[in-house]
Design goal:
The complex is a heterodimer of chains A (346) and B (278). Chain A is α/β, with parallel strands linked by helices and 346 residues long. Chain A has nine helices and 18 strands. Classes of the chains: A alpha/beta (346), B alpha/beta (278). Strand 18 (318-321) of chain A pairs parallel with strand 10 (255-256) of chain B. The structure holds flavin-adenine dinucleotide and adenosine monophosphate.
């Protein structure tokens, strides 16, 4: 066992499939570890999942801690947390990153509470830096900067955990980029033996229904999103029509999701998915920081809004001040005519 | 006042204390469960004195009992320090079978306080609960949301559930209860209340009346719940705010497109030309 300082990444797997967000975090951990001279450790629980450990290494980990046990076949809070808490106490990681999925957000606070360490949810960026604590007049070096929008307005907060380890953070899918797998990368998969207590089995899973969603908002080349400025389902159907014409997907702001206009899986933003399509059309979305955090890397942005001062206009490449109900049909018509012209030209 | 304090924590005191939406779902479930299985519902909140408004609202919505956890030393708490206070308060309440929380609070969306409180209490948790299917033989069966799908789990009691907004439709406060428990107050509110009800000449007289009519909202401080000062509030919070930056929007090279068919057709043509679409 190495005494090197480490960054851990919780590797979430369901039925032998690793969640994208876990590998994205391995990639980010690799960057951070290179700056610090630490090693990247994948923390993997499951049953019959050793092969996944090698996949984690190919994506940038140096080392995988593998707890392979029948009781860990499916995610359950207490058995998984037991292994993580025991191993973290023993091995003292500096940083522990967890994907912001429902199960990741079930697991991380349980572990952080037991280890009495800080945890920041839904970070939109992670960096390394120093921190001067005014109260103690002391400077801490090389802390994990956990960056996320702050409540209220156009603010981002940088949060640090100077005195507790590990420094824990959750990050949503798509925020970090998926690293390219390197088939030649080597590392070690180290088995760990879980020691459970009877109380760890207080909960049993009776049944599970998994719908592997066929759409991946993250991968769509074009996303047409609507917000609170879209007043009804008929108008929302215009977004869908345009998305279909452009070979893209429909997304929404949290306001649109809360209004029941579109499913939660399609929410773009800090607490939804981060997307980087070739084209992002924002119709009736004001452009709150939490929404922008999930789409401001798009290659081209078209904003449609009745309010000329909407923040979305400041990051848009095409600014259309107008009523979405009138503008969307115009875009649909222009795209239709365009494809007709092309067909005639062929 | 400002919602953001100088040390970067949130100054909840100036925010209008609103009922966190998913906590209404939690309260609705609690009521439905006690109607079917018996028992009582106690609502607790850690917050500034004016969070008493939320507790009154809870009484009108059918809570049997409420407790306000307020103390200057609770201020600046992150989720871990919050969970310590909730744990101590729940333990002081005595025996319990079920703790219900919202999945997340709309101010931070952290969804951490529920699981952290469960860990502190040493009880299992069911997060993202969408429906309660059964409670029998000391066990609860519930459905919880997954990233893609859902699962049905059975867990021994006591246990903590975090409830998602789609779980139910919270009923509004009942007018009958609102009338019956209109006067419910914390001692800190007595002075204001006596202005409205001058017939109570002293705080003691009011207190006696409220006590007799089950309208006293107890207030517990750190000392009352035996929370050690270094585990609560800012002092007990491992997370610290290094800095808060104002986001400056770099203006991109942008074109204003008039909302008319010609201008929009030109925009589409440009996007096709640049291989963005088509
Ligand atoms: C912790 C936290 C996390 C969050 N996470 C997310 C997240 O992941 N994603 C997210 O989106 N939000 C998130 N939010 C919410 C976010 O702060 C905003 O409240 C939300 O994005 C607003 O959605 P909106 O722009 O659709 O609505 P609004 O802000 O209400 O904007 C509606 C816009 O529509 C315009 N409009 C009205 N009528 C028309 C019309 N006829 N035609 C064209 N335009 C019209 C208006 O001018 C306005 O600009 C989060 C908030 C918090 C506190
Ligand atoms: N100060 C508090 N007092 C009581 N309950 C709280 C408090 N903070 C959070 N909670 C509970 O924990 C849930 C999740 O909060 P959060 O982790 O802040 O998103 C909320 O919906 C509440 O049920």
């Amino acid at each position: 066992m190495t005494a090197r300082k480490s960054i851990w990444v919780h590797i979430e797997q369901t039925d032998g499939r690793i969640a994208d967000v876990s590998l994205e975090l391995v990639g980010k951990a690799r960057d951070l570890a290179s700056q610090l001279g630490y090693e990247v450790v994948g923390f993997l629980c499951g049953h019959g999942v050793e092969a996944l450990g090698w996949d984690v290494i190919r994506h940038g980990a140096d080392h995988v801690l593998l707890a392979d046990h029948p009781e860990l076949a499916e995610y359950r809070t207490l058995p998984y947390a037991r292994v993580a808490i025991t191993e973290a106490r023993k091995r003292q990681p500096e940083i522990f990153l967890v994907g912001g999925t429902p199960n990741g957000r079930d697991f991380a606070p349980r572990v952080a509470s037991a280890l009495r360490c800080g945890l920041t949810a839904d970070c939109t960026d992670l960096q390394i830096g120093n921190y001067h604590a005014k109260r103690e007049d002391k400077t801490y070096e090389n802390l994990l900067y956990q960056i996320r929008p702050a409540f209220g307005g156009n603010l981002v907060a940088t949060i640090v955990n100077p005195n507790t380890r590990p420094q824990m953070a959750t990050v949503r899918e798509g925020v970090m980029r998926m690293p390219v797998a390197d088939a030649m990368r080597t590392g070690a998969v180290e088995p760990v033996t879980p020691e459970f207590e009877p109380a760890d089995f207080a909960l049993e899973i009776l049944s599970r229904q998994v719908r592997h969603s066929t759409v991946k908002l993250k991968d769509a080349p074009v996303i047409v999103s609507g917000g609170a400025g879209i007043s009804d389902a008929d108008e929302f159907a215009l977004l869908r029509e345009l998305a279909n014409l452009l070979g893209g997907e429909v997304g929404g702001s949290r306001a649109a999701v809360d209004a029941g206009m579109i499913g939660r899986a399609f929410q773009v933003g800090q607490t939804g998915t981060t997307v980087r399509p070739r084209l992002y059309i924002a119709a009736g979305i004001s452009g709150a920081i939490q929404h922008r955090a999930g789409m401001d890397q798009s290659s081209k942005i078209i904003a449609i809004n009745t309010d000329p001062n909407a923040p979305m206009f400041q990051i848009a490449h095409y600014r259309i001040v107008g009523d979405a109900r009138e503008v969307l049909p115009m875009i649909i018509k222009a795209v239709r005519e365009r494809s007709m012209d092309q067909r005639e030209a062929e | 006042g400002d919602a953001m304090t100088k040390d970067g924590t949130m100054n909840r005191g100036v925010l209008s204390a609103i009922f966190n939406p998913e906590d209404l779902n939690a309260l609705e479930w609690a009521r439905q469960i006690t109607v079917r299985h018996g028992g009582t519902v106690t609502v607790i909140t850690m917050g500034p004195p004016k969070a008493a408004n939320i507790l009154r609202d809870s009484l009108w919505r059918g809570a049997d009992k409420v407790v306000l956890l307020t103390d200057r030393r609770f201020a600046g708490a992150d989720t871990l320090a919050t969970s310590v206070v909730l744990q101590k308060a729940i333990e002081k309440l005595g025996r319990f079978d079920l703790v219900l929380a919202g999945r997340q609070a709309i101010d931070g969306d952290t969804a951490q306080v529920g699981p952290q409180t469960a860990e502190k209490l040493g009880i299992p948790q069911i997060t993202y609960a969408e429906s309660v299917l059964d409670i029998a033989d000391g066990r609860i069966t519930a459905q919880r949301a997954l990233d893609s799908g859902s699962e049905i789990v059975r867990c021994t009691l006591p246990c903590l559930l975090t409830v998602v907004g789609s779980a139910n439709t919270p009923r509004p406060p009942s007018v009958r209860r609102q009338i019956a428990r209109k006067l419910a107050a914390t001692p800190g509110e007595y002075a204001a209340l006596r202005k409205q009800w001058p017939e109570f000449e002293t705080d003691d007289a009011l207190d006696e009346y409220l006590g007799a009519h089950d309208l006293r909202i107890p207030v517990w401080t750190a000392d009352d719940i035996g929370a050690s000062p270094d585990r609560i509030g800012l002092a007990g919070s491992p997370t610290q705010v290094h800095k808060v930056n104002f986001v400056v929007l770099e203006s991109t090279e942008s074109k204003t497109v008039e909302p008319n068919p010609e201008a929009i057709a030109a925009m589409v043509a440009e996007l096709v030309h640049e291989y963005i679409v088509g």
